[in-house]
Each structure stands twice: as structure tokens, then as C-alpha cells.
Amino acid sequence: MAKELDISCARPVGSEVEGVLTEPNTIKHESKKEEKTMIMIGREAPDFTAPGYQNGKFLNFKLSDYRGKWVLLCFYPGDFTFV
Amino acid sequence: MSVDSMFVHKMWDETELSKMVPGGIPFPMLSDAAGRVGSTYGVYDPEAGVETRGRFIIDPDGIIQGYEVLTPPVGRNVAESLRQIQAFQLVRKTKGKEATPSGWQPGKPTLKPGIDLVGKVWEVWNTDMAFKD
Q1: How many alpha carbons lie under 13 Å from residue B28 in its C-beta half-sphere?
Q2: β-sheet bridge partners, residue B60
Q3: Across the interface, do A77 and B57 touch by the CB < 8 Å criterion?
Q4: What number is the ipTM of this complex?
Q5: By residue range, what is the domain housing residue A53?
Q6: Which of A79, B22, B29, B63 would suit a FRET pair with A33, their CA atoms being 20 to 30 Å apart?
Q7: pLDDT value of position B56
Q8: Which residues pair with A16 in a beta bridge?
Q9: Does residue A16 form part of some domain?
Q10: CB–CB contact A15 B33 (8 Å)
Q11: pLDDT for B32-78, tens place per residue?
Q12: What's the 3-state SS for B103-120?
């Protein structure tokens, strides 16, 4: 399941979407048309890994680890933003 | 999930959220720097540099069954999200043989789509049922 993270100053954030290059030095600046994933109901949710906090631990979470369970994935503007 | 670091998530949980939810937030608070996941899900606003209130229901096979996106000032209705999950669970359990009409709540009648129901929904469902608990 979720892997515990070694804490350092480097990359305290930094999610990765499956199939999307995230390291700046590996991004190729080619004129190749970028394929963008479209979200659509009835289709598979794009897989990703993202660091996070849960019950006193920093862990690395992967969406596909939650197969077999119902997942409510919520995005919000920011911590401490009132609503 | 937001663009905040997991360190900020920890502080928010410890200093504020744990005062609203005993024991703190039980589920993962995810960090999405640069909005990579949010961009993929169509909820990252690059001009504001933050994510909008996107909410996705993903079933046990990893399939998106529903989503809702709100602008930042309006909060979600958690009870409605849970009601939708219960409805999707019922549909999944009955392998699509039952469907949930507008306003359905757990325990209320479902619809059984089929040739016998064509033109007869009015006999088993009325608009009052969309509003009454």
C-alpha cells in the first residue's frame, strides 16, 4: 500500500501522473503533439502517485492501490482557505 | 488534494482540522505541486495556481462514475456525495438491473428498467418523490 517517505528538503511535494514525464531535465522539447488525457465518466481514472499526510505519517500514495474500494477524490484550492 | 505541501497539510490538520474532526483527518491529504494531477483531471487553474473544488467518484475497478466541479467560494455537500456513492453501489450490486430515480435515497424505491417499464414510470414514480426524504 502507501510507502512511507524519507523526509528531506527536496521535493516535499511532487505528484506524478502515469505516462506524464515530471523531471524537468527529461522533458523533450519537440514539436510532437502532446496527448492530453480527457476525463470522462465510464472511463478509467488516470493513475497517479502523490505524497501526502495521513495519521501522523508522510506517505506516498498511488490511486491504483485502492482498486477494490470506492474512492472519493477531492481537489480544493488550498489549506487554511476557509470553505 | 491541493497544491500545498504535505508539511502544510500536517500543520493544517494539527492546528485546525483536528479541532473540528476528533483525531484529525482520517484519510490521506495529498499534495499536488504544480497541479500535475489536477491538470490531468481538468480542475487545475493555471492562472490562479490552485485547484478548483473537483470531486470524483471512482469505483472499485478504477472507473470514474461521476464528478462535480465548483468554484472556490462554494463548499460541497458531503451528504450528496455519499448518497451518490450509495446509489452507484446499488446499481453495481444489481448489475444494472436496478436504477435510482431522481431524489433517490437508500430505502426508497428503485426503477427496474425493461420493456414493461416503457411509458409506465409515472405509475411507480412521481415528482414529489424527488423532494421528499
Answers
A1: 23
A2: none
A3: no
A4: 0.93
A5: 1-7+46-83
A6: B63
A7: 98
A8: A49
A9: no
A10: yes
A11: 999 999 999 999 999 999 999 999 999 999 999 999 999 999 999 99
A12: CCCCCCCCECCCHHHCCC
